[in-house]
Amino acid sequence: xxxxxxxxxxxxxxxxxxxxxxxxxxxxxxxxxxxxxxxxxxxxxxxxxxxxxxxxxxxxxxxxxxxxxxxxxxxxxxxxxxxxxxxxxxxxxxxxxxxx
Length: 100
Description:
The protein is mainly α. It contains four helices and no strands. It has helices spanning 2-23, 28-47, 52-80, 86-99. It is globular and about 50 Å long.
């Protein structure tokens, strides 16, 4: 149920995320930092969970964090890659995320 909630939230919350990114968070670096802060809150929440509802709450928070972080990571890789090597570096970044 946790992964089902994760997938559903990603689909449902995309319009909200797009609104936040267009209106308030203009840099990719800030987007990723906000996502990391949300990740921290989710890990604190799950560390204190004693019932399924606590785990579900942590998953909701984690999902919001990953919605901020993971779209920005390939973008940062693209910005930092040498000319003509952006695809290679994006592939490395995405491969390591999958391997993890």
